[in-house]
Hints:
Blueprint: E1 3-7, H1 17-30, H2 37-43, H3 48-56, H4 65-77, H5 89-98, E2 101-107, H6 111-121, E3 127-132, H7 144-153, E4 160-164, H8 167-176, E5 179-183, H9 190-195, E6 200-202, H10 205-210, H11 216-222
Parallel strand pairs: 1-2, 1-4, 2-3, 4-5, 5-6
Amino acid sequence: MDRAALFDVDGTLVDSNALHVVAWWEALRQGGHDVPTHAVHRAIGLPGEKLLEHLLGPDRDRSGDDRLSAAHDTLYGAYFERLRAFDGAAELLSTLAGGGWKVVLVTSAKDRELEALRAAVDADAAISATATADDVAEGKPAPDPIEHALSLAGVPAERAVLVGDSVWDMEAARRAGVLCVGLLCGGIPRADLEDAGAAAVYDDAKDLLAHLDTAPFAKVRAEREPSAE
């Protein structure tokens, strides 16, 4: 296995973005912040601290951040049993793993949330490793999570592809020098994903699976590393 398939989870493999939007919107409302849901949606995919900074600004009173994050976690936790993977998600991971790819999850989720997401995907046998925001100094859109995932897979950036649903995924992959693929199932427009660096955009996991032979995965698979002398 000399190539890695890196996957965001929320909005990419699991239909969870709308649930995050509702949970963050309500947490913010409880904290006295009136933030429209469309703005919250655009921020999904960022780690909690960066999401709050994106929505409330860098000059906000940070003393309430932990309370807001805890409220989100509690509200979102009520939806764990309702989490569902997108059609084709498990099959996509299994197909790639069976084809010699190291599948690594790259996510801001942690602890119980990550367990619930993995249970929804139900493809643990195909997953080699998981890189979370807690493993690095800075989360997406910084390249740190992608670079950490590459180190876990033991492959260079040019031998990897990242699949995600947000502009933060695309920006992080681009900054790490990794080819990136965007999925529309997270609700972000095609043009936004392409502007952020997506080499190709598909509807969802099932659509990507149907086009693996022509997707960026095929380009990486076809490349040959220099032969040893």
